[in-house]
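**User:**
My hope is that you can spare some time for a protein that puzzles me. This is the protein in question:
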Amino acid sequence: MINEFVLENLNTAIIALDQELRVAFMNHAAEALLDISEKSGLQLPPSQSLDHGSMMKDLQRALEQNQQFTRRESEIVIHGTSVLVDYTITPIENQHACLLVEIHPRDRLQRITREESLIAKQETSRILARGLAHEIKNPLGGIRGAAQLLDKQLDDKELSEFTQIIIEEADRLRDLVDQMLGPIKPPSMNSLNIHEVLERVIQLIHAETGGQLSVAKDYDPSIPDLPADRERLIQAILNLVRNAMQAIEQHMPLSDGQITIQSRISRQFTIGNQRRKLVCHLSIIDNGPGIPEHLKENIFYPMISGRAEGTGLGLPMAQYIISQHQGLIECDSKPGQTCFHVYLPLTVNEPTSQPSYLRQS
């Protein structure tokens, strides 16, 4: 029992095969890598869960020669997606299994490095933006106050119209700066159902688009309640969905657009340097034109927008709110499909720290 407990909590994908090379056991990391549950995977041959390439020959050799084999940088295809991995096949003596397969995705380290860099850059830009916002806000108050005093001294209504413009524009800039500053108070964390948040966002988007935009739902109803600030989380997800809607609207009729909102559980996932046993994984997928290459690395920075009329504050604000929930947003984009991934921990308890290179992808 202790051995199985240890295997289940490893970040390395472990698969045990019987004499006929059928799956006898797989841990949570293997389930996540192959996108299949252990119950569904039991007794399946490897060829039905992944396109193994040279792996089957190595399995046969390890079985026949009773010898360990290791292969570096081998490509396997999982549900049509090519993944670069290292794997080791070890013969074992067990009444249920005779081969142990360890699989290490090679792209994991790259993804961890990219995530840590993203978090550091976002924190730096947030500090700079808040400092800049404070510097702008102080003279704005002086400009508005001077315009109000001047307005009281003017008898000419035509001249008074200009002072009103100054006051209104100062107010508009103040509101923009407030958006840059973001919410000052810490989030009010309460247990909530993530699907209630998603349903509210979909309701708001339907109202904005008059029901023209198709929004598909792909939920995992087994996701437990998680700690979150309901209003702020709605705002963050709404910003992401609205961003997808606006990207679609720029390049096609809304009626041709499609947004899919998906919810899943990810196991043994690390955000920053904090390992989480379970996280809620939301995916917001649209069929828009994709994010231009020159913007991909900077979309979460303030004032960066692919639209001429955009403020560039929607995505940074979403990322800030999710970070307040100890979560993370990542983005994958190609022409015809953009996906924003939102990761939210299911508990506010301090997780066990783990070296970042052990990140479960």
About this structure: Residues 121 and 301 are 9 Å apart (CA to CA). DSSP finds nine helices and twelve strands in the chain.
